[in-house]
Every structure is written in structure tokens, then in C-alpha cells.
């Protein structure tokens, strides 16, 4: 395949034609691989079925609305399951929604235009070439979220029909219970997008993972390489204890080798597909010293390309080392200590010998009673605070791992999915302990040290070395910016965690998910008709209060519900109250809906009034405002409510409709004290592009000059009239040039998802330095 290969559709692209700027189309995995190919690194060729293709398939089959509705229900169930336990009825609801979602995706299949382009791209690789078909979710393999093992990947797929079927399998895996739960925990509540990478299989004899920084200790002066015989899924899946090589990046130079245990390997079968066969390699290490150093050198080149530590998957055939995946290390904190080495001189260790010794995979020390489990479906047996002991753990174990005090496994290495998940959750973990499930018994109290890889009987009270900063936690010394940085949030369960980030408050508290849970999926009109208004107000107030308390005294801006008629109709009882609109995206939603039917917003205002008695920094924001007269009537509803009679209430308006640029002075004259730009809706209405349309995705651009002109006008008006301006969206974290435009325009703040805080703060600081430098240069040249 070459970069000049013709395309039948823009829904499929060669790997060489995508790069880091295409993560919103090619997903994290596809974008990273394309960037490596462009840099001349040894990456097997292939192509990407771009993310819009999945939406095109759902639209073509007429199931997109059903998928959206079930997805929203599943997130509510996932959150409830996490908070209450998966034995609750909503735990069953998550599984049911997941099954229905995957069934809809499979029944939708692939539209002919996409299937033809996919087959053409596959044929260009050769005749019946064996390929790997890997999920590449938008947001996956980013600096903040790994999605380690959450979505499907298939190897040794041969033939066009099998490749088409594998792509659909990857799409469907996006809606597995574990993937839905992970997305909800990460605060990713929009309907997910998934690209699929189809890549030539390497005739693998050895494979593994390389980390360009120690993932456990956080040391940047170490490279960790793990290697196994055969294909690499046994390493990332934790089925074996791989050989581990520790290297000094200077050179690089091999420092130590740890021999693992591997009895079987996965290879390609004679008729295609994967088979497990015994390992017959004598007493040889998987890698020679020179090979480990070559892998470390390539991984360090990837790190140099991206500018931050990397997690790189590699494979060796009979001729060379290939790189088959790369992503930032999401669990790497600040290196505040050197790793503890297991020795008799360790002052923090007890004098007695440990029960078990394995590999320290997730930093920290915890004590609890042992619970030996064999499979994820036994997770309900684990009590909160017990130590999970299992043969191995994969992402299906995540709900159980979240409740565990610590994790110990028989097999696995420090780069397997279980280790990555444990580090993301901040749960101490020891992997590769070999005999944990036989040597440890239920109910026995043990202490697990994830730094040294040791497990002791009883409680160990000696001091523990300081842990690295947790994933997503506050930076050691976050850069100070003049532009405020807020977060978008809708999950009370994450409030305390997210409030610990270096942010100035919540710029967008979305009401929709809170309400869906408060109403238990019922339409608000139906709740009012049944006389259950008070239950809704109480539940909503409790949820908002959890977030407001966590951030106090920082401001929290609550955006009132902005469900569209098709989404309201999907609620229980909704068909009796909602019409079928031809275009609900620009139909009866936002401000005008409150004017025509105030039953829901009155419940919201009553709930906010209760919360503001304790948390006065809570503000209210009105979405999708088209004209002055509707805003005036909506503000009248607020003024007539208990909330409106409270002192100091700040009223904000969303800038999503282009008319706001003209109306904003009058809005401010009515009492609006803040404006927040909703870049997604504003872009679609300025450019006339349905943001949900896969066919028009290449036209949707928040940085289009026409969109930037409206944004600039809104910010300028807000500055002139003395009210703060903000922007809610992901563009500030993804596009440095977009951030610089906002800073130059004088925006007061931006609000992003929690996982994007660190990247956005860096982008803001860089943009502010550029603006100051440009101003200084103009002053020196006399152009100021």
C-alpha cells in the first residue's frame, strides 16, 4: 500500500494519510501509528476505517436514535452500578442495554460504500493477507485515558469477508459493559466514536511491550521492556509472566534481566486464526541484550517524536523489530522517589519473610483480607476493602478491582492490562506472584506492597515511601495562567476527585445525566402528573450539592436541561408528551422549551435554590437562546422562583446560536452576567453542518474563519460590557492554535473534560507566553 492509493470514500484512509491531527477521525491508535509511519519508524502498513463510518452505518440502518437512547440509559446504569454495586437491578440494566446496543450495531452492519472501500483497501495489501483488526476509539491511547483492553482487537484475520465482519465486531465492542463503565468513569458521556485499524500481521516469533519510563516508580531514567514468545496478547493480557529487561536510556544500556515463566505461546494456526502451543525454547531468554537495547532505542525514538514517555508494543519476525502500537503512558506521575528494591535493608519492610514475591505493578501499600476469585463473574463475592487474588485480571475485572484494597495475580507483567488498570485506579498491585491463588486463603489478613512486589501476612505498619501522583491528579506545580481553567462535569461520584485538579471551578454542569438518574428514566411531565415532583427535586438537589460542596468556594455553573424532543421522547412515557420533529437538533429545545412548558425547569430551579443555601457560588446557565423575547420570559421564570429571590445569583447564557453575537448587549442589559460559548452547536449553525452527520464530518471545523469571527465578536462584546466569557468544548485541549485565538481575543476562561485539564493548562500557558512575546516585540518595534 502506498500513500498515493486512491480512495473510494473519505471514510477509509491509509495509515500513512493520518497523523496526530486526525485523532478525531482515526482514533488514538490509528493517529499514533500514522504518525510513526510518517516519521520513518518500522510500522507494518495498513489502513483505517475512520470513526465517521460507524455513525454512517447506524444512520444508514435507521438505528442511530435507538443507539443514542440506549447508550444514555447504559451510562446511568453504569454509574449506579459503580456507586451501589453490580448486584442491583440497574446492574442488570447495564448488561441488558449493552446486549441491545451490540445487537443493533451488528444488525446495522456496514453500508455498501464503506464495505467497498474497505475491500478495495484490503485487496491493495495483497491476496488474502493476514491482518490485525484493532479498535481505535476517539480519545483512546491519549495522554489522559488509555482504554487499556476495553475494546476488541482481533489478530490473524484473513479474507475480505472476515475483515468486514471483524470491523463490525470492533464497533460492537464499544458498547460492552466494561467499555461503557470505563467511559462513564472518565466523564466521556457523548455517544462514542470508534475507528478501526486494519494492519498487516507480522510473522511474530517474539513480542512484548516497552515503557520509556518506569510505569511503577515514575522514573524517567529507566526503560522497561517486557518480552514473551509468540504473539504479544499474552503480555498485555497478563496470561504469562514475561521476561523483564531494565535499561538505562543512555546508550541505551541493559542493566538487569528478570526471567519470567511462560509455558504456552500464541501463534498463527496453519488454517489461519490463533492457536496456543507449548513453548520449547530450552533455557534461553526471550531477548538477547542487543535485541533489548534495539527495542529500547526504537521506543525512545517514539518518545522523542511525541515529547513525552511512551508505552510501545513491538513484535519481531525473522528479520527485524516492528512497532505495532504506541501511546502515552497515562499512569505516570511525578518521579518523587526511586523505586524500593526488595532487600533485607528495606527499612519499611517487616523482619519476617514475605508470603509471596512477584512484580510490583501499581505503587502503594494496603492491608485487607484475602478473597480468591477465579473469574470476573465472581466479583460480587468481593467485599469492599478486601484483597483481590486471581489467576490474572483483564479489563472485565475493573468493577471488582475498583472495590479492592489491593490486587495480587499469579501471572502477568508490569505492562499488562491489569497493571495499567490498577495504576489508573490507584490500587496497589502485585502481578506474576505465580502461586498466589494456591498459597493465599480466603479471610487471611495480608499486606500488599505494590512498590516492592511483596505480600506479607498480617498488617505492616512501617512507613511507606511516598507514592507518585495519581493519574489525572494535580500537577506538582501547575503553570499559572491568566485565563481561567474550569471543568465540565456531570458525575457527583467523581466530584471530590475532579475537585482536586488545578482548576478554578465547574464551567459546565450538565443537567441531562443528573436528571435522567433523578427521574429514573421517566419523562418529567409524567413525574409531575403522578405527583412525584418532590422526589425529583430532592434527588436532583442531592446530586448537585455533592458537586458544589466538593468545589466550594469555587464557582459551579449549572446548565439547565437541554434534551431535544427525540431524546425526551426516548424517556419512559415520553411518547405521550413529545411530538416527532423532522429536525430536533434545531427544534423545541433550550430556552424556548422552558417558555412553552415550565414544568421541568421549575423543578430544576427549586433544586438549585436548596443547594445555594449551602453553596452560594452556584450559578445558573440557560442553553440554546435564540432571541431576546424568549430569554426575557425565561429570566422571568427564574425571578419568580425561590432561586431568583436569593441574593447574588449569577445568570449565564450559552452562546450556541449565531444570533447571540447580535443579541448579547441586550441579553446583558436584561441581567445576564456571563456568556459561555458552546463550540459544537455554534459551529454547526454557523457552517450549516449537522454535527451528527458522518457524511459532512469533514466540513465541521470549530476553527473555520466564520466560526472564529462569531466567537471573537462574542468575546469582544463581553469584554466591552464587563462580563466574563468562557468556552465549553474539547477544541482547547486538542488544538493549540484554537487556544491561542481565544487568548488573543481575551476570553476569560475555558472549560474542558477532567482528563484534558493538564493538556489545556499547558496550551493556555504557551498561548499566553506567545501573546505577551508578540506584544513585547511590537512595543520594541514601535508598532504598539
Provide a short characterization of the protein structure.
The chain is α/β, with parallel strands linked by helices and 784 residues long.
What's the SSE blueprint?
Blueprint: E1 12-14, H1 23-38, E2 46-49, H2 52-60, H3 64-84, H4 89-108, H5 112-123, E3 131-137, E4 153-157, H6 160-173, H7 177-185, E5 194-200, E6 206-211, E7 223-229, H8 233-236, E8 243-248, E9 253-258, E10 264-268, E11 274-278, H9 289-306, E12 310-316, E13 321-328, E14 356-357, E15 359-362, E16 365-372, E17 387-390, H10 398-403, E18 406-409, H11 417-425, E19 429-431, H12 436-439, E20 445-449, E21 454-457, E22 484-489, H13 495-499, E23 506-510, H14 511-518, H15 524-529, H16 533-551, E24 556-559, H17 565-569, H18 591-596, H19 599-612, E25 618-622, H20 628-640, E26 651-655, H21 660-669, E27 674-678, H22 679-687, H23 705-721, E28 725-728, H24 731-734, H25 736-745, E29 749-752, H26 757-781
Parallel strand pairs: 16-17, 17-18, 18-19, 22-23, 22-29, 23-24, 24-25, 25-26, 26-27, 27-28, 28-29
Antiparallel strand pairs: 1-2, 2-5, 3-4, 3-5, 6-7, 6-12, 7-8, 8-9, 10-11, 12-13, 14-21, 15-19, 16-20, 20-21
Helix pairs in contact: 3-4, 3-7, 4-6, 5-6, 14-16, 16-19, 21-23, 25-26
Amino acid at each position: 500500500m502506498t500513500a498515493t492509493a486512491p480512495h473510494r470514500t473519505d471514510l477509509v484512509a491509509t495509515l500513512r494519510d493520518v497523523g496526530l491531527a486526525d485523532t478525531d477521525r482515526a482514533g488514538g491508535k490509528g493517529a499514533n501509528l500514522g504518525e510513526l509511519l510518517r516519521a520513518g519508524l518500522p510500522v507494518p502498513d495498513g489502513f483505517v476505517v475512520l470513526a465517521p463510518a460507524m455513525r454512517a452505518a447506524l444512520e444508514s440502518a435507521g438505528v442511530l436514535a435507538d443507539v443514542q437512547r440506549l447508550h444514555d440509559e447504559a451510562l446511568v446504569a453504569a454509574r449506579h452500578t459503580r456507586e451501589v454495586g453490580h448486584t442491583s437491578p440497574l446492574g442488570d440494566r447495564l448488561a441488558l442495554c449493552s446486549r441491545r446496543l451490540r445487537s443493533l450495531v451488528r444488525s446495522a452492519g456496514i453500508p455498501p460504500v464503506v464495505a467497498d472501500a474497505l475491500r478495495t483497501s484490503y485487496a491493495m495489501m495483497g491476496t488474502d493477507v493476514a491482518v490485525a483488526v484493532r479498535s481505535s476509539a476517539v480519545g483512546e491511547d491519549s495522554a489522559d485515558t488509555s482504554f487499556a483492553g476495553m475494546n476488541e482487537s482481533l489478530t490473524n484475520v484473513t479474507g475480505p469477508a472476515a475483515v468486514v465482519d471483524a470491523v463490525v465486531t470492533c464497533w460492537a465492542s464499544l458498547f460492552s459493559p466494561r467499555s461503557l463503565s470505563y467511559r462513564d468513569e472518565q466523564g466521556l458521556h457523548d455517544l462514542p466514536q470508534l475507528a478501526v485499524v486494519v494492519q498487516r500481521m507480522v510473522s511474530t516469533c517474539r513480542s512484548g511491550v516497552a515503557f520509556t519510563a518506569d510505569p511503577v516508580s515514575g522514573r524517567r531514567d529507566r526503560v522497561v521492556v517486557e518480552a514473551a514468545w509468540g504473539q504479544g496478547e499474552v503480555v498485555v493480557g497478563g496470561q504469562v509472566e514475561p521476561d523483564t529487561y531494565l535499561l538505562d536510556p543512555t546508550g541505551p544500556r541493559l542493566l538487569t534481566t528478570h526471567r519470567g515463566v511462560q509455558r504456552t505461546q500464541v501463534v498463527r494456526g496453519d488454517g489461519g486464526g490463533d492457536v496456543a502451543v507449548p513453548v520449547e525454547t530450552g533455557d534461553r531468554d526471550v531477548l538477547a541484550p542487543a535485541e533489548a537495547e534495539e527495542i529500547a532505542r526504537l521506543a525512545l525514538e517514539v518518545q522523542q517524536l511525541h515529547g513525552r514517555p511512551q508505552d510501545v508494543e513491538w513484535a519481531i519476525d525473522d528479520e527485524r523489530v516492528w512497532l505495532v502500537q504506541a501511546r502515552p503512558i497515562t499512569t505516570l506521575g511525578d518521579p518523587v522517589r526511586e523505586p524500593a528494591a526488595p532487600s533485607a535493608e528495606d527499612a519499611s519492610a517487616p523482619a519476617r519473610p514475605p508470603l509471596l514475591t512477584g512484580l510490583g505493578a501499581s505503587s502503594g501499600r494496603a492491608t485487607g483480607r484475602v478473597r480468591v476469585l477465579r473469574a470476573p463473574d465472581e466479583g460480587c463475592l468481593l467485599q469492599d476493602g478486601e484483597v483481590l487474588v486471581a489467576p490474572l485480571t483483564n479489563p472485565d475485572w475493573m468493577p471488582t478491582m475498583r472495590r479492592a484494597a489491593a490486587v495480587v495475580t499469579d501471572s502477568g507483567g508490569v505492562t499488562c492490562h491489569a497493571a495499567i488498570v490498577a495504576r489508573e485506579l490507584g490500587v496497589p498491585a502485585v502481578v506474576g506472584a505465580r502461586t498466589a491463588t494456591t498459597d493465599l486463603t480466603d479471610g487471611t489478613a495480608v499486606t500488599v506492597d505494590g512498590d516492592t512486589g511483596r505480600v506479607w501476612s498480617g498488617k505492616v505498619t512501617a512507613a511507606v515511601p511516598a507514592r507518585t501522583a495519581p493519574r489525572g491528579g494535580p500537577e506538582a506545580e501547575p503553570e499559572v495562567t491568566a485565563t481561567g481553567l474550569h471543568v465540565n462535569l456531570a458525575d457527583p461520584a467523581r466530584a471530590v476527585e475532579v475537585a482536586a485538579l488545578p482548576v478554578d471551578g465547574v464551567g459546565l454542569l450538565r443537567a441531562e445525566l443528573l436528571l435522567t438518574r433523578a427521574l429514573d428514566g421517566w419523562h418529567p411531565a409524567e413525574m409531575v402528573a403522578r405527583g412525584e415532583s418532590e422526589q425529583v427535586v430532592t434527588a436532583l438537589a442531592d446530586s448537585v450539592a455533592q458537586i458544589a460542596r466538593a468545589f466550594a468556594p469555587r464557582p459551579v455553573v449549572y446548565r439547565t436541561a437541554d434534551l431535544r424532543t427525540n431524546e425526551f421522547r426516548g424517556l419512559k412515557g415520553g411518547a405521550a408528551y413529545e411530538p416527532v420533529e423532522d429536525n430536533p437538533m434545531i427544534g423545541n429545545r433550550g430556552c424556548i422549551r422552558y417558555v412553552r412548558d415550565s414544568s421541568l425547569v421549575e423543578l430544576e430551579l427549586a433544586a438549585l435554590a436548596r443547594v445555594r443555601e449551602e453553596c452560594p457560588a452556584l450559578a445558573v446557565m440557560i442553553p440554546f437562546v435564540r432571541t431576546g423575547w424568549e430569554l426575557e420570559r425565561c429570566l422571568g421564570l427564574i425571578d419568580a422562583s425561590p432561586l431568583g429571590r436569593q441574593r447574588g445569583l449569577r445568570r449565564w447564557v450559552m452562546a450556541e446560536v449565531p444570533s447571540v453575537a447580535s443579541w448579547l448587549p441586550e441579553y446583558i442589559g436584561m441581567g445576564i452576567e456571563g456568556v459561555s460559548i458552546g463550540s459544537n452547536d455554534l459551529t454547526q449553525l454557523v457552517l450549516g453542518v449537522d454535527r451528527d452527520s458522518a457524511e459532512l464530518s469533514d466540513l465541521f471545523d470549530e476553527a473555520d474563519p466564520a466560526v472564529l469571527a462569531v466567537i471573537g465578536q462574542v468575546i469582544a462584546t463581553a469584554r466591552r460590557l464587563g462580563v466574563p466569557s468562557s468556552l465549553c468544548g474539547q477544541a482547547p485541549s486538542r488544538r493549540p492554535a484554537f487556544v491561542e485565538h481565544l487568548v488573543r481575543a481575551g476570553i476569560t476562561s475555558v472549560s474542558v473534560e477532567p482528563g484534558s485539564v493538564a493538556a489545556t493548562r499547558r496550551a493556555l500557558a504557551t498561548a499566553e507566553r506567545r501573546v505577551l512575546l508578540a506584544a513585547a516585540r511590537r512595543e520594541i518595534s514601535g508598532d504598539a
